[in-house]
Amino acid sequence: MPKRCGWVKMSNPLYVAYHDEEWGRPLHDDQALFELLCMETYQAGLSWETVLNKRQAFRESFHGYHLQAVAEMSDEELETLLDNPAIIRNRAKIFATRANAQAFLQVQAAFGSFDAYLWSFVGFKTIDNEITNYKEAPAKTELSETMSKALKKQGFKFVGPVCVYSFLEAAGLINDHEKDCDFNSHKNTV
After folding, report:
1. Quick check: is 47 in a domain?
2. Known binding positions for Zn(2+)
3. For residue 189, is pLDDT > 60?
4. What is the top-level taxon of the source organism (predicted)?
């Protein structure tokens, strides 16, 4: 059996697949970055497992995270999502998804892509924290504080420094895989 980071819930195949196939891999596709950012914002105050279990329903509710479609969702469309038990029915988070799509599009227009904007914060190279035990990883850093402020200035919602740090880990800007994790082979691959 492969060695995985200690935080992986082996009882949930979605959790295992997320760790093995997505988490910490340098991500450069804007639509995938938008979905991941949305997922991190949904997690605020909840478990990551809850978000993963509702991921497909969120995709269906938010037009596959197609940026323009989400940015153009009406208040009425968003309100109807509050009746969908398959997603996290938090009004502020649902409305933040539209606001974040709009902010994302503005960043793309200003910087050419969200990818270019995001990766500029780390000099276009993954930061490798050489984690021995996942409990050593910080919840936030000076980088996530700086990026949180920058994203808020751009109009993003639910992007506090803890959320941003999790996003940076998930999108591979920060490598917090444990050193002996068998899925830590993508270090500094941008």
Report:
1. yes
2. 5, 19, 177, 181
3. no
4. Bacteria
